[in-house]
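Kindly inspect what follows.
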Amino acid sequence: DVHRRHSQRHRLPRSALKQLKIKKFVKGDRWEVCAICLDDFEDGAKLRILPCDHGVLLLFLKIIFHKSIYL
């Protein structure tokens, strides 16, 4: 399917995604809000730290990258 091949070409490679740091949020960390939904992080929330140094809730990356195919 042409659409599927096109979308896979622009997807972050699995190896690159797995290299993104995972961090459990602790109050006082430099990341305070999710760069996607802008909600405040709660203690214990799992974050992926993006190359741009933004924290994103792991849940959102799982949704974006199709139900944890790569996570």
Notes: The mean pLDDT is 79.
